[in-house]
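dude i think i finally got it to work??
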Amino acid sequence: MPVESIRGRGATRNSTPTRFNLKEREADGDWLDSVEALDGITPRQTTVTIEHPKTILTRNTSPDIGFDRSINVFRGCEHGCIYCFARPTHAFHDLSPGVDFESRLFVKPKAAQLLHSALSRPGYDCAPIAMGTNTDPYQPIEERWRVTRAVLEVLLETRHPFTITTKSDRVLRDLDLLKPAAELGIAAVAISVTSLDPRISRTMEPRAPSGAKRIDAIRQLNAAGVPCYVAIAPVVPQITDHELEAIVEAAAGAKAAGGFYLPVRLPHEVAPLFRAWLADHYPDRAAKVMATIAAMRGGRDNDPNFFSRMQGQGPWADLILTRFAIAAKKHGLPQAKFPLRRDLFRPPEGAQMRLL
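look at this
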Protein backbone atom coordinates (compact mmCIF):
# COMPACT_ATOMS: atom_id res chain seq x y z
CA MET A 1 0.00 0.00 0.00
CA PRO A 2 1.35 3.46 -0.85
CA VAL A 3 2.71 5.32 2.17
CA GLU A 4 0.91 8.61 2.83
CA SER A 5 1.77 11.63 4.94
CA ILE A 6 0.74 10.63 8.45
CA ARG A 7 0.72 14.13 9.88
CA GLY A 8 -2.77 14.84 11.16
CA ARG A 9 -4.20 11.62 9.71
CA GLY A 10 -5.18 8.30 11.19
CA ALA A 11 -4.45 5.94 8.31
CA THR A 12 -0.86 5.68 7.17
CA ARG A 13 -1.70 3.96 3.89
CA ASN A 14 -4.04 4.56 0.95
CA SER A 15 -4.87 1.11 -0.34
CA THR A 16 -6.59 0.56 -3.69
CA PRO A 17 -10.18 -0.71 -3.35
CA THR A 18 -10.65 -4.06 -5.08
CA ARG A 19 -13.71 -5.69 -3.46
CA PHE A 20 -16.22 -4.31 -5.96
CA ASN A 21 -14.56 -5.44 -9.21
CA LEU A 22 -13.05 -2.01 -9.75
CA LYS A 23 -9.97 -1.77 -11.94
CA GLU A 24 -6.77 -1.63 -9.95
CA ARG A 25 -4.61 1.42 -10.50
CA GLU A 26 -1.32 0.39 -12.11
CA ALA A 27 1.84 2.36 -12.74
CA ASP A 28 2.22 3.27 -16.41
CA GLY A 29 5.84 4.38 -16.37
CA ASP A 30 5.50 8.16 -16.50
CA TRP A 31 7.16 10.59 -14.13
CA LEU A 32 4.05 10.88 -11.93
CA ASP A 33 4.72 7.35 -10.69
CA SER A 34 7.91 8.66 -9.07
CA VAL A 35 6.66 12.03 -7.86
CA GLU A 36 6.74 11.01 -4.20
CA ALA A 37 10.31 9.77 -4.48
CA LEU A 38 11.32 13.02 -6.24
CA ASP A 39 9.43 15.60 -4.21
CA GLY A 40 8.50 13.79 -1.00
CA ILE A 41 5.03 13.07 0.36
CA THR A 42 2.87 16.18 0.60
CA PRO A 43 0.17 16.52 3.26
CA ARG A 44 -3.26 15.52 1.97
CA GLN A 45 -5.77 18.37 1.86
CA THR A 46 -9.41 17.72 2.76
CA THR A 47 -11.93 18.11 -0.08
CA VAL A 48 -15.72 18.06 0.10
CA THR A 49 -17.99 16.90 -2.74
CA ILE A 50 -21.71 17.64 -2.85
CA GLU A 51 -23.83 14.51 -3.21
CA HIS A 52 -27.44 14.43 -4.39
CA PRO A 53 -29.01 11.13 -3.22
CA LYS A 54 -32.63 10.30 -3.95
CA THR A 55 -33.31 9.06 -0.42
CA ILE A 56 -31.82 9.76 3.00
CA LEU A 57 -33.17 6.95 5.20
CA THR A 58 -31.10 3.76 5.25
CA ARG A 59 -32.83 0.58 6.40
CA ASN A 60 -31.31 -2.49 8.01
CA THR A 61 -32.61 -5.81 9.30
CA SER A 62 -29.63 -6.76 11.49
CA PRO A 63 -30.93 -8.63 14.56
CA ASP A 64 -28.10 -7.38 16.81
CA ILE A 65 -28.69 -3.66 16.17
CA GLY A 66 -31.34 -1.79 18.12
CA PHE A 67 -32.65 0.33 15.26
CA ASP A 68 -33.94 -0.36 11.76
CA ARG A 69 -33.32 3.01 10.10
CA SER A 70 -30.53 5.56 10.10
CA ILE A 71 -29.38 8.81 8.53
CA ASN A 72 -25.82 9.63 7.50
CA VAL A 73 -25.49 13.14 6.11
CA PHE A 74 -21.79 12.66 5.29
CA ARG A 75 -19.66 10.04 3.58
CA GLY A 76 -16.16 9.69 4.92
CA CYS A 77 -15.06 11.21 8.22
CA GLU A 78 -12.32 13.70 8.92
CA HIS A 79 -11.87 12.46 12.48
CA GLY A 80 -9.65 9.79 10.94
CA CYS A 81 -10.19 7.04 13.53
CA ILE A 82 -7.96 4.22 12.33
CA TYR A 83 -10.31 1.48 13.56
CA CYS A 84 -13.46 2.88 11.89
CA PHE A 85 -15.57 0.00 10.53
CA ALA A 86 -17.13 2.40 7.97
CA ARG A 87 -13.88 2.86 6.05
CA PRO A 88 -14.66 0.13 3.47
CA THR A 89 -17.74 2.04 2.29
CA HIS A 90 -15.48 4.49 0.44
CA ALA A 91 -14.63 1.71 -2.00
CA PHE A 92 -18.11 2.16 -3.51
CA HIS A 93 -16.77 5.43 -4.92
CA ASP A 94 -13.54 3.82 -6.17
CA LEU A 95 -11.75 5.62 -3.33
CA SER A 96 -9.41 4.20 -0.76
CA PRO A 97 -10.65 3.22 2.70
CA GLY A 98 -7.31 4.65 3.87
CA VAL A 99 -6.41 8.33 3.71
CA ASP A 100 -9.12 8.98 1.06
CA PHE A 101 -11.80 8.09 3.63
CA GLU A 102 -10.70 10.86 5.96
CA SER A 103 -9.73 13.47 3.36
CA ARG A 104 -12.14 13.08 0.42
CA LEU A 105 -15.51 13.72 2.00
CA PHE A 106 -19.07 13.87 0.66
CA VAL A 107 -21.93 15.99 2.00
CA LYS A 108 -25.68 15.66 1.39
CA PRO A 109 -26.93 19.26 1.74
CA LYS A 110 -30.56 18.37 0.95
CA ALA A 111 -30.80 15.71 3.66
CA ALA A 112 -33.47 17.65 5.58
CA GLN A 113 -35.68 18.03 2.51
CA LEU A 114 -35.34 14.32 1.73
CA LEU A 115 -36.25 13.45 5.30
CA HIS A 116 -39.25 15.78 5.13
CA SER A 117 -40.46 13.89 2.04
CA ALA A 118 -39.89 10.50 3.63
CA LEU A 119 -41.84 11.38 6.77
CA SER A 120 -44.69 12.79 4.65
CA ARG A 121 -45.38 9.53 2.83
CA PRO A 122 -48.74 7.91 3.62
CA GLY A 123 -48.38 4.95 5.94
CA TYR A 124 -44.97 5.92 7.30
CA ASP A 125 -44.34 3.87 10.45
CA CYS A 126 -42.56 5.90 13.13
CA ALA A 127 -39.52 4.33 14.82
CA PRO A 128 -36.31 5.89 16.19
CA ILE A 129 -33.85 7.17 13.59
CA ALA A 130 -30.18 6.64 14.43
CA MET A 131 -27.67 9.29 13.40
CA GLY A 132 -23.92 8.73 13.44
CA THR A 133 -24.01 5.01 12.80
CA ASN A 134 -21.60 5.14 9.85
CA THR A 135 -19.83 8.50 9.90
CA ASP A 136 -19.86 11.19 12.56
CA PRO A 137 -22.67 13.78 12.17
CA TYR A 138 -20.56 16.32 14.07
CA GLN A 139 -17.26 15.99 12.27
CA PRO A 140 -15.52 19.32 11.48
CA ILE A 141 -17.34 20.03 8.19
CA GLU A 142 -20.69 20.17 10.02
CA GLU A 143 -19.56 23.55 11.36
CA ARG A 144 -19.86 24.96 7.84
CA TRP A 145 -22.61 22.85 6.26
CA ARG A 146 -24.95 22.48 9.27
CA VAL A 147 -26.75 19.57 7.61
CA THR A 148 -27.10 17.66 10.86
CA ARG A 149 -28.75 20.68 12.44
CA ALA A 150 -31.23 20.95 9.55
CA VAL A 151 -32.17 17.28 10.01
CA LEU A 152 -32.69 17.84 13.75
CA GLU A 153 -35.02 20.73 12.97
CA VAL A 154 -37.24 18.40 10.92
CA LEU A 155 -37.17 15.71 13.61
CA LEU A 156 -38.14 18.20 16.31
CA GLU A 157 -40.83 19.74 14.11
CA THR A 158 -42.43 16.34 13.54
CA ARG A 159 -41.68 15.08 17.07
CA HIS A 160 -39.88 12.08 15.62
CA PRO A 161 -37.66 10.03 17.98
CA PHE A 162 -33.93 9.91 17.25
CA THR A 163 -30.54 8.98 18.67
CA ILE A 164 -27.16 10.57 17.98
CA THR A 165 -23.78 8.88 18.28
CA THR A 166 -20.74 11.13 18.05
CA LYS A 167 -17.15 11.65 19.15
CA SER A 168 -17.47 15.41 19.14
CA ASP A 169 -18.43 18.07 21.63
CA ARG A 170 -19.81 20.04 18.65
CA VAL A 171 -23.10 18.38 19.54
CA LEU A 172 -23.44 21.07 22.21
CA ARG A 173 -23.99 23.67 19.49
CA ASP A 174 -27.40 22.14 18.84
CA LEU A 175 -28.43 22.12 22.48
CA ASP A 176 -31.25 24.55 21.67
CA LEU A 177 -32.82 21.76 19.57
CA LEU A 178 -31.80 18.78 21.68
CA LYS A 179 -33.19 20.18 24.93
CA PRO A 180 -36.82 20.58 23.77
CA ALA A 181 -36.60 17.21 22.00
CA ALA A 182 -35.40 15.60 25.22
CA GLU A 183 -38.24 17.25 27.15
CA LEU A 184 -40.62 15.48 24.75
CA GLY A 185 -38.81 12.19 25.36
CA ILE A 186 -37.75 11.76 21.72
CA ALA A 187 -33.96 12.35 21.91
CA ALA A 188 -30.91 10.56 23.27
CA VAL A 189 -27.18 11.05 22.68
CA ALA A 190 -24.26 8.65 23.01
CA ILE A 191 -20.74 10.07 23.06
CA SER A 192 -17.94 7.67 22.23
CA VAL A 193 -14.94 7.89 24.56
CA THR A 194 -12.14 5.51 23.65
CA SER A 195 -9.19 7.02 25.53
CA LEU A 196 -8.43 9.75 28.03
CA ASP A 197 -4.74 9.75 27.05
CA PRO A 198 -3.91 12.53 24.54
CA ARG A 199 -0.85 10.61 23.32
CA ILE A 200 -3.00 7.69 22.22
CA SER A 201 -5.75 9.86 20.77
CA ARG A 202 -3.33 11.88 18.64
CA THR A 203 -2.53 8.83 16.52
CA MET A 204 -5.69 6.74 16.89
CA GLU A 205 -8.29 9.52 16.41
CA PRO A 206 -6.17 12.46 15.20
CA ARG A 207 -8.92 14.96 14.33
CA ALA A 208 -11.50 14.10 16.96
CA PRO A 209 -11.90 16.19 20.13
CA SER A 210 -10.01 15.01 23.19
CA GLY A 211 -11.45 12.52 25.62
CA ALA A 212 -11.64 15.25 28.27
CA LYS A 213 -13.82 17.41 25.99
CA ARG A 214 -16.13 14.48 25.33
CA ILE A 215 -16.54 13.76 29.04
CA ASP A 216 -17.34 17.43 29.60
CA ALA A 217 -19.94 17.27 26.79
CA ILE A 218 -21.58 14.32 28.57
CA ARG A 219 -21.72 16.45 31.71
CA GLN A 220 -23.22 19.47 29.95
CA LEU A 221 -25.83 17.49 28.03
CA ASN A 222 -27.11 15.67 31.09
CA ALA A 223 -27.10 18.89 33.12
CA ALA A 224 -29.33 20.39 30.43
CA GLY A 225 -31.73 17.46 30.64
CA VAL A 226 -30.59 15.66 27.49
CA PRO A 227 -29.95 11.98 28.28
CA CYS A 228 -26.37 11.33 27.21
CA TYR A 229 -24.65 7.96 27.46
CA VAL A 230 -21.01 6.96 27.26
CA ALA A 231 -20.00 4.51 24.54
CA ILE A 232 -16.58 3.01 25.19
CA ALA A 233 -16.38 2.00 21.57
CA PRO A 234 -14.22 0.45 20.54
CA VAL A 235 -12.07 -1.11 23.23
CA VAL A 236 -8.71 -1.86 21.59
CA PRO A 237 -6.83 -4.59 23.50
CA GLN A 238 -3.26 -3.73 24.54
CA ILE A 239 -3.82 -0.12 23.40
CA THR A 240 -6.82 1.30 25.30
CA ASP A 241 -8.29 -1.54 27.37
CA HIS A 242 -6.28 -0.49 30.44
CA GLU A 243 -8.39 2.71 30.53
CA LEU A 244 -11.74 0.93 30.76
CA GLU A 245 -12.27 1.55 34.47
CA ALA A 246 -11.03 5.16 34.28
CA ILE A 247 -13.48 5.98 31.48
CA VAL A 248 -16.37 4.42 33.39
CA GLU A 249 -15.44 6.45 36.47
CA ALA A 250 -15.13 9.70 34.48
CA ALA A 251 -18.46 9.12 32.71
CA ALA A 252 -20.24 8.31 35.95
CA GLY A 253 -18.77 11.47 37.47
CA ALA A 254 -20.21 13.40 34.52
CA LYS A 255 -23.65 11.96 35.39
CA ALA A 256 -23.88 9.85 32.22
CA ALA A 257 -27.34 8.36 31.78
CA GLY A 258 -25.76 4.95 31.16
CA GLY A 259 -22.98 3.24 29.27
CA PHE A 260 -21.88 0.38 27.08
CA TYR A 261 -18.74 -0.86 25.33
CA LEU A 262 -17.86 -2.63 22.09
CA PRO A 263 -14.69 -4.56 21.24
CA VAL A 264 -12.78 -3.34 18.18
CA ARG A 265 -13.93 -4.67 14.79
CA LEU A 266 -11.66 -4.90 11.75
CA PRO A 267 -13.83 -5.73 8.69
CA HIS A 268 -12.48 -5.97 5.14
CA GLU A 269 -9.87 -3.29 4.35
CA VAL A 270 -9.76 -2.01 7.95
CA ALA A 271 -7.61 -4.93 9.10
CA PRO A 272 -4.57 -4.25 6.83
CA LEU A 273 -4.84 -0.51 7.51
CA PHE A 274 -4.90 -1.20 11.24
CA ARG A 275 -1.90 -3.52 10.95
CA ALA A 276 0.05 -0.82 9.09
CA TRP A 277 -0.91 1.72 11.76
CA LEU A 278 0.33 -0.61 14.49
CA ALA A 279 3.61 -1.13 12.64
CA ASP A 280 4.13 2.64 12.43
CA HIS A 281 2.97 3.68 15.91
CA TYR A 282 3.19 0.60 18.15
CA PRO A 283 5.78 -1.75 16.63
CA ASP A 284 6.73 -3.03 20.09
CA ARG A 285 3.31 -4.58 20.66
CA ALA A 286 1.80 -4.97 17.19
CA ALA A 287 1.95 -8.77 17.20
CA LYS A 288 0.46 -8.95 20.70
CA VAL A 289 -2.42 -6.64 19.77
CA MET A 290 -3.36 -8.69 16.71
CA ALA A 291 -3.01 -11.96 18.61
CA THR A 292 -5.41 -10.70 21.29
CA ILE A 293 -7.91 -9.49 18.69
CA ALA A 294 -7.72 -12.89 16.98
CA ALA A 295 -8.37 -14.59 20.32
CA MET A 296 -11.54 -12.51 20.66
CA ARG A 297 -12.60 -13.11 17.03
CA GLY A 298 -12.39 -16.87 16.69
CA GLY A 299 -8.82 -16.86 15.36
CA ARG A 300 -9.45 -14.20 12.70
CA ASP A 301 -8.96 -10.46 12.38
CA ASN A 302 -12.72 -10.01 12.29
CA ASP A 303 -15.88 -11.91 13.18
CA PRO A 304 -18.78 -10.86 10.91
CA ASN A 305 -21.43 -12.99 12.62
CA PHE A 306 -24.43 -11.37 14.25
CA PHE A 307 -24.28 -10.88 18.03
CA SER A 308 -20.75 -12.28 18.47
CA ARG A 309 -19.34 -9.42 16.36
CA MET A 310 -20.61 -6.97 18.99
CA GLN A 311 -19.39 -8.97 22.00
CA GLY A 312 -16.33 -10.97 21.08
CA GLN A 313 -15.62 -14.44 22.41
CA GLY A 314 -13.11 -16.31 24.51
CA PRO A 315 -11.23 -15.41 27.74
CA TRP A 316 -10.23 -11.91 26.62
CA ALA A 317 -13.80 -10.95 25.75
CA ASP A 318 -15.04 -12.42 29.04
CA LEU A 319 -12.41 -10.46 30.94
CA ILE A 320 -13.43 -7.13 29.38
CA LEU A 321 -17.10 -7.89 30.06
CA THR A 322 -16.36 -8.67 33.71
CA ARG A 323 -14.19 -5.58 34.19
CA PHE A 324 -16.85 -3.32 32.67
CA ALA A 325 -19.59 -4.83 34.81
CA ILE A 326 -17.56 -4.43 38.02
CA ALA A 327 -16.56 -0.85 37.18
CA ALA A 328 -20.13 0.12 36.24
CA LYS A 329 -21.48 -1.30 39.50
CA LYS A 330 -18.76 0.36 41.55
CA HIS A 331 -19.36 3.81 40.09
CA GLY A 332 -23.13 3.55 39.62
CA LEU A 333 -23.19 3.65 35.83
CA PRO A 334 -26.46 2.10 34.58
CA GLN A 335 -26.73 -0.09 31.53
CA ALA A 336 -27.50 2.02 28.47
CA LYS A 337 -31.14 1.98 27.41
CA PHE A 338 -32.82 4.32 24.98
CA PRO A 339 -36.55 4.57 25.85
CA LEU A 340 -37.91 7.02 23.29
CA ARG A 341 -41.53 7.98 22.68
CA ARG A 342 -43.08 7.22 19.30
CA ASP A 343 -46.64 8.30 19.98
CA LEU A 344 -45.96 12.03 19.55
CA PHE A 345 -45.02 11.81 15.88
CA ARG A 346 -46.99 14.04 13.53
CA PRO A 347 -46.29 13.99 9.78
CA PRO A 348 -45.14 17.22 8.16
CA GLU A 349 -47.88 19.53 6.96
CA GLY A 350 -47.82 20.21 3.22
CA ALA A 351 -44.83 20.49 0.94
CA GLN A 352 -43.06 23.07 3.11
CA MET A 353 -41.64 22.58 6.58
CA ARG A 354 -43.37 24.45 9.39
CA LEU A 355 -41.50 27.32 10.99
CA LEU A 356 -40.38 26.55 14.53
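The beta strands are 47-50, 57-59, 69-71, 74-75, 104-107, 129-131, 162-166, 187-192, 228-235, 259-263.
im so relieved honestly
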